[in-house]
Amino acid sequence: MIHTGQRQLLCSCLLATACGLAGNPAYAEATAPDLPIWQALEYEQKALWVTAHSRVELVADADDCQLWLLTAQSSVASNSEEVELELAARDGRALQRARLSQGKGRRFKNYEFLPEYILRQRRDPPANTKLPPDEWPLTSSKEVAYPPLPDDTVVTDAYALLELAGRFLASEAASRQVAVNTEFNFYLVTMSRSDTPAIKVNYQVEGQAKAVSGQRDTRGVTLQVSPLGEQADKPDFSLLGLHGEISLLFDRDNGLPLQLKGTAPRLGSTEINLVGVTLRDPGQ
Known about the structure:
Layout: H1 13-19, H2 25-30, E1 38-47, E2 50-60, E3 67-76, E4 79-88, E5 94-102, E6 106-113, E7 117-123, E8 138-145, E9 155-156, H3 161-170, E10 175-181, E11 186-194, E12 199-205, E13 212-216, E14 218-227, E15 243-251, E16 257-264, E17 268-279
Parallel strand pairs: 9-10, 12-17
Antiparallel strand pairs: 1-2, 1-17, 2-3, 3-4, 4-5, 5-6, 6-7, 7-8, 10-11, 11-14, 12-13, 14-15, 15-16, 16-17
């Protein structure tokens, strides 16, 4: 769904090669950080006879080590969405996003994160069409201006917080801030460390017959979410269906994000648990 010709690449892998030795500062700047231990995560929440399911996968672009590709599929009842996100590996900055939403109707939206604004385009399907979503007729195009941002704050997508929170936890920083764009709104997300208890887990590792279960010690990251700039639309921040203050609980030993806690519509305080994981090939 995302056109590669529109990608805003920070740097190519060829630059890293050309820089030579790892001690060269230019080489260090061009080198992408390590991907997390997980390649794909699956979460599930059951409540009120309805099951919500989300799957998030993160890989490096085969042609550019500075570009990461995140895909996400989420569904609850008859509603679903598919997201394709291009991220700058160095800092998690969003470069481009495509979202296909399906419920009472179908909508396809593409967001290009340009230096001065976000170009948002919406496409709606004609009746009985078999065309792919990116070939549906263009029904609206809007330039969404960025709000004033704190220094060194990147604009990203909520799904990217799963990786960015783990990256923050592995660092020595006391806190970190990023801005999240939704539809027309922006939110400032402040990450901080938190004390979290041991929790019971039960998830399946791809390729392994026996599920991982039992008690696991955790380390936590709290996400404080606040509106950033003038809100052009109703409040719409969400991470896997959760809003408000959100806690992410990571396995203390292997760093897997085991659980998310927050507030969900009509449910109040709730938690979403890891039910499946695909571990990354060590060679990647």
